[in-house]
């Protein structure tokens, strides 16, 4: 049975794709909206084009959509893990680009025979968890240029980027193309704990999917078996969106833990 929690808490209003107003409000407020009934490539593309300016990239097909399916041993190459059938760790899309796409749409066309659950973590909730439990880790992950994503042509960044108006954005990858400064590498277990603590699971059925703010939500996938096929679109929104998400202040009364999680003296 599919897990419908996100479909209940982040529903789409209006008929798709001609009335994306409900989706606009959902994304502006919570950074995520669910979709259903998009059972064909034509329907997925029409909806994507209604809410975003679709951006082509290395893995996309001629219409700008990317067919996400197991491509065999080629998926073992660095940066191609999403096109295999293995586990995908929580990440944001195109993190090695100077300006990653703001929106990501993923729609299931054929579910896996087994496995293939989607794992979603709200970056705002991750930020809040770190602020409550590991404030020193949160401060470290906001230090500029403490992460490098990509190969030699990648991009230096940080896990959390602060924006004016007490807002923040998250950028992350955890594969072989991610490198972290010693200033933050000791805090990675705390980051993974925070991501796992707020993670939500769902099993997509044919025609179901989600649209996320790529500067706010982390997404992942469990390993799967069978001929699972999803379609993905990346792009910039056709409506205004403030950068990232509202940022939670660090609690000044909390004792800052050390990298191993114990309280500092």
CATH class placement: Alpha Beta
Name the CATH superfamily classification: Clavaminate synthase-like
What count of helical segments does DSSP give?
7
CATH architecture: 4-Layer Sandwich
Span between termini: 49 Å
Largest sheet: 6 strands, antiparallel
The total count of strands amounts to 18
Mean pLDDT equals 85
Q: Please tell me how large the radius of gyration is.
A: 18 Å
Overview in brief:
This protein is 22% helix and 27% strand. The chain is of the alpha+beta class and 265 residues long. The relative contact order is 0.25.
Describe the structure.
The chain has helices at 5-9, 21-30, 41-51, 123-133, 135-141, 182-185, 188-197; strands at 32-35, 52-54, 66-68, 88-91, 103-110, 114-115, 118-122, 147-149, 155-157, 160-163, 167-170, 178-180, 200-202, 209-213, 217-221, 224-225, 229-237, 245-246. With 265 residues, the chain is α+β, with helices and mostly antiparallel strands. Strands 1, 2, 3, 5, 14 and 17 form a six-stranded antiparallel sheet that branches. It has a four-stranded antiparallel sheet with strand order 4-15-7-13. Strands 9-8-12 form a three-stranded antiparallel sheet. A hairpin with a 3-residue loop joins strand 10 and strand 11 (167-170). The termini are far apart.
Topology overview:
Elements: H1 5-9, H2 21-30, E1 32-35, H3 41-51, E2 52-54, E3 66-68, E4 88-91, E5 103-110, E6 114-115, E7 118-122, H4 123-133, H5 135-141, E8 147-149, E9 155-157, E10 160-163, E11 167-170, E12 178-180, H6 182-185, H7 188-197, E13 200-202, E14 209-213, E15 217-221, E16 224-225, E17 229-237, E18 245-246
Antiparallel strand pairs: 1-14, 2-17, 3-17, 4-15, 5-14, 5-17, 6-16, 7-13, 7-15, 8-9, 8-12, 10-11, 11-18
Helix pairs in contact: 4-5, 4-7
């Amino acid at each position: 049975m599919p897990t419908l929690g996100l479909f209940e808490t982040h529903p789409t209003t209006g008929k798709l794709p001609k009335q994306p107003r409900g989706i606009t409000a959902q994304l502006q407020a919570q950074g995520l909206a669910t979709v259903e009934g998009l059972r064909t490539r034509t329907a997925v593309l029409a909806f994507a084009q209604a809410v975003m300016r679709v951006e082509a990239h290395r893995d996309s097909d001629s219409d700008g959509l990317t067919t996400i399916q197991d491509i065999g041993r080629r998926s073992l190459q660095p940066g191609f893990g999403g096109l295999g059938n293995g586990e995908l760790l929580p990440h944001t899309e195109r993190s090695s680009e100077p300006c990653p796409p703001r929106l990501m749409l993923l729609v299931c066309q054929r579910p896996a025979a087994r496995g293939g659950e989607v794992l979603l973590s709200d970056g705002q909730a991750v930020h809040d968890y770190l602020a409550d439990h590991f404030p020193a880790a949160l401060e470290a992950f906001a230090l500029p240029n403490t992460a490098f994503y990509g190969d030699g042509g990648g991009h230096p960044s940080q896990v959390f980027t602060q924006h004016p108006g007490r807002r923040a954005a998250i950028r992350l990858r955890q594969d072989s193309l991610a490198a972290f400064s010693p200033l933050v590498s000791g805090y990675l277990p705390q980051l993974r704990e925070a991501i796992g603590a707020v993670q939500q699971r769902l099993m997509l059925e044919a025609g179901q999917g989600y649209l996320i703010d790529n500067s706010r939500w982390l997404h992942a996938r469990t390993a799967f078996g069978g001929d699972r096929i999803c379609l993905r679109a990346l792009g910039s929104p056709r409506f205004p969106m403030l950068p990232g998400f509202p940022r939670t202040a660090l609690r000044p009364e909390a004792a800052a833990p050390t990298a191993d999680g114990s309280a500092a003296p």
